[in-house]
Model the fold of this input.
Amino acid sequence: MFKIIHRSVLKELFVTFFLMLAFLNSILMMEKILKLSRALSGIGSTLCDMARIILYLQPQLMTLTIPMALLLAPIVVYGRMTVDNEIVILRASGMSFWRITLPVTVLSVVGFLACAAFSLYLGPKSSFKLRTEVARIVSVRAALAIEAGAFNTSLKDLVVLVKGKTAENLLQDIFIYDSRDKAEPKTLMAKEGRIVMEDDFTLGLHLSNGYINVIRGKDLIEIFFEKYRFTMDINTGMPSLKKIELMPGELFDRIRQAKDRKETVSLQLELHRRFSIPLVCLLLGLLAPPLAFMSGKSGRLLGLSTGLMVFTSYYVFQIYFENLALNAHIPHYAGGWMATALFGFLGGLMHRRENSR
Done:
């Protein structure tokens, strides 16, 4: 009988968990996709390009959404069981609190393994793949987005006009109006040029045989050149998160090679975070059922609100303690693990209290 009950509850937990995971992922992904689509649509990216970017974003988001879904799914399921008086019936039949919440423990172990895989391996790999894919899209599509004989304004504060373009994407008779520096707008004319990809999502336009007009106050400066490298920044909204791209072994190497204390502590905190976030998934097996029982018959809304508040508090404490470590107020290991320890203590205390009833 117990196996049938556990199997039924576990099935409902997994279904709710995956629904929560999809919902949370879509919420968190929306802002990143909007920022990326604004920049990449301007250079002619396709739906397939955006689909690959969404795929590469998933492992990074999973390290955040898996613990959140592990907390919210048991609250929803056990909250529903409390409202339907199923918890009262199970306790009346002789099932202990530990046996009632055994499916949550199984779900937490599965979540721990999945989160560890995303945090230690898939997350860094996907971050590097995402950077490479965005760079590829920018380098390939930017030249294709510039049409001969038409003004191109897809790049912010830049107007580009070319008279001709060869099959090798060599631009001919180029006119550029650069108003990025409002105090000194520039006008560039060149016989030909070619777009190449520079570092950090920056396009380089290698121009030849042209001149530049610079307006500086009431003065007009004219510069002639044979070769000139003109840079164009692509605002993708993607900060340079190189720590996220490092595997744990590479983080250890970077820590040994760090030149100052702040860089060392920052890398150490990143390493601690890779291990602490999966561990939180196990601690949620202690915390989620008591939160569900506390909401009682007040409905799912109270339980979900409580769960979101608890998880938000965890990340606030995590950021607070990490900032203390960065400013040398506490050791780096305390900054990396203090929030997890408090979270675990709270979960153990609530679990013990509920089990003693």
Q: What stands out?
A: The longest helix spans residues 102-145. Residues 156-233 form one domain.
